[in-house]
Amino acid sequence: MSYDIAHIKSLVEPNRVHRDVYVDPEIFELELKRIWGRAWIYAGHESQIKNPGDTYALTIGREPIVMARAKDGSLHVLYNRCAHKGAKVASEGCGHSAGFRCPYHGWTYHHDGRLQALPARAGYADTGLDLENPAFHMQPVAQFESYRGFIFVCFDKSAPDLKTFLGDVAATLDNMADRSPEGEVEVAGPPLRYMHDNNWKMFIENLNDAMHPMIAHGSVGSATRRLAAKMPEGATPSAEAEIIFPFGSSYQFFDDLGVTGLPNGHGYMGGKKSIHTSYSDIPGYYDSMVASYGEEKTQEILSQNRHNSIFYPSFTAKDAVQAVRVVRPIAVNKTIVETWHFRLKGAPEDMLKRTILYSRLINSNASMVGPDDWDCYARMQEALPSHSTPWVDMRRGFGKDVTEGDHRTSFGTSDLSFRNQYHAWLDYMTRETVA
Ligand code: FES
Ligand SMILES: [Fe+2]
């Protein structure tokens, strides 16, 4: 069927959404144009293209792009499409080169996209081919901006700037970078990358779904409680136990964290408190922070502790763990999720080890937690198309939000975060001008 605005509006009610938003391939294609084609989307981190000549190619929805650092140190984000006959120029992932060279007929480009040369050029004499003409260049994306080293792209040239788009969720990236004594993070190694059998929104929703850990991760919760009960009084838990224990927390614990919804579908849980608050100190870290910032500022930085922040639609971040989880929609029921880990520049290497340990215990497909979530997503994707009721419920805490400026808050297990995301979804999907 074909979707007109009225029909799209009928899919989202104040406290429930129609299953078609998760299972209809036509809705998925519209999302790529209207959400992924309009919002600022996370592409990667500047440290992935640290040195002149470094490149990183990726695909966002149906758009192959490549980030590059040119000889003069400038950053560029281009469509990864040859100006000749359209071949994808750079292979996916990282590279390093003097410039781009198309593997088909050998047109070469500078890292800023300008056409550099092409073989047997005499054959183009008097045809209008001109190296200086932008029509023969690799094309830049409409907009890109870097915030604290995190590079975002936007395929809509009329979209407002990145800072306006991010609003208060930017504080999560600030905090992640501020937790480095040098004020900068850098990518550490390749990501964990898994294909999930579910719609992209299920992952984004789950990250602030505080009603599922007690059930979906119940086996981890009960095992950690048994382990904790066996520990001698006053004993320090191992680094592993410290990370796993909070997954056995109560409904009350998550309620107390609170949840915040922001404009454009962004949001976060926690703020002063999260499942990471009671991690023990890593020797040397606090001192290195105080040496850079002084005592008061260090305490202020370390007191921000958001649980998961949602950068709708493309990624989630944990400031206190220095990891981001990036969503790459492939099909209505296929999503790549990448987990990237960051080193706090100037901090002891043990800080990075804890970040990696967290991912190994929680995000990896060999972990005790991640597979519980993927199984639930796949179950939803499987059962939603059935001839049962078409509605997906999001009414928990409905009517109890507290509004202050552009922040809406509620108790942590409220469905506020989902309703906030669908508010943005509807706005993107029903705006008349299609990018
Ligand atoms: S398609 Fe790239 S050189 Fe021909
Ligand atoms: Fe989970």
From TrEMBL:
Gene3D superfamilies: Naphthalene 1,2-dioxygenase Alpha Subunit, Chain A, domain 1 (3.90.380.10), Rieske [2Fe-2S] iron-sulphur domain (2.102.10.10)
InterPro entries linked: Rieske_2Fe-2S, Rieske_2Fe-2S_sf, Ring_hydroxy_dOase_asu_C_dom, Rng_hydr_dOase-A
One MF term in the entry's GO annotations: iron ion binding
Keyword Cell wall biogenesis/degradation applies: no
Domain (Rieske): residue spans on this chain: 41-153
Membrane spanning residue stretches: none
Keyword Metal-binding: yes
Keyword tags: 2Fe-2S, Iron, Iron-sulfur, Metal-binding, Oxidoreductase
Protein family per UniProt: Belongs to the bacterial ring-hydroxylating dioxygenase alpha subunit family.
Record's protein name: Rieske 2Fe-2S domain-containing protein
Source organism of the structure: Govanella unica
